[in-house]
Design goal:
five-stranded mixed β-sheet; alpha+beta; 21% strand; 5 strands; binds ligand 0O2; Beta Polymerase, domain 2
């Protein structure tokens, strides 16, 4: 079972160990991203990353996901079947930065890319846009190395703004928002796309102006 107040000492110790390992994986990926951002600033005088948010999925959400997929709530099932226990969100200024960050991460030898989902090239019907990478990162413990899964979501500030409102609406209406609200979200997603494209082109123009 996942951690519950009634869990025995052995289960509690295992839960603590698993939590520590996922938190360590988040630190590893967070540090990689910070290094890339710092180096980019040093070399190109520019920060591709606006900010980074790391989070561990709550045990309630893990149980819910396992249940919805027909699995018993055990630590083994959680490690095997829940891919986003450790999640990190990277917010960039421009769409081009998203692919830049994704490529730089993909080039790192110790990261193994298990899957990528490009919801920017192929947005969800709701309008959701984001680039997802499921990776494993090695975590070095005192007596062994564990390859830990981390879900990385990379998106622009505007895409993130849209996704957080949509997430709130989704929970408020338990996934069944009225038609006009869903339509309004689709419209907002189009505006976000337009805004991202115009901001990118404006930035490119300013960059070339500076170089002359
Ligand atoms: P929460 O509450 O954010 O943790 P997987 O989770 O990879 O096994 P899935 O659902 O196919 O399976 O993965 P996908 O599509 O990569 O989505 C994973 C996460 O992306 C979600 O986690 C959300 O955080 C985010 N996401 C995906 N689709 C949407 C969307 O339409 N709107 C918003 N706002 N976020 C989305 P969780 O566990 O579903 O949710």
């Amino acid at each position: 079972m996942l951690y519950q107040p009634s869990a025995d000492k052995e289960e509690l110790d295992r839960w603590k160990e698993v939590t520590l390992i996922y938190n360590s994986a988040l630190k590893e990926i967070g540090t990689k991203l910070e290094i890339l951002n710092d180096e980019f600033q040093d070399v190109h005088k520019y920060n591709p990353i606006e900010h980074i948010k790391a989070r561990m999925k709550t045990s309630e959400s893990i149980v819910k996901k396992l249940k919805s997929r027909g699995y018993e709530s055990t630590i083994e099932n959680m490690v095997e079947h829940v891919n986003d226990i450790a999640g990190i969100r990277v917010i960039c200024s421009f769409t081009s930065d998203i692919y830049r960050i994704a490529d730089m991460l993909a080039a790192q030898d110790d990261l193994r890319i298990l899957a990528t989902k490009d919801y920017i090239k192929a947005p969800k019907p709701s309008g959701y846009k984001s680039y997802h990478m499921l990776v494993t990162v090695p975590v070095f413990l005192s007596n062994r190395v564990v390859e830990v899964k981390v879900e990385i979501q990379i998106r622009t500030v505007a895409m993130d703004f849209w996704a957080s409102l949509e997430h709130k609406i989704y929970y408020k209406f338990e996934g069944n928002a009225p038609e006009h609200i869903q339509q309004s979200l689709v419209n907002c997603a189009k505006i976000v796309e337009q805004l991202d494209a115009e901001m990118l082109s404006l930035n490119n123009e300013v960059q070339s102006f500076v170089k002359e």
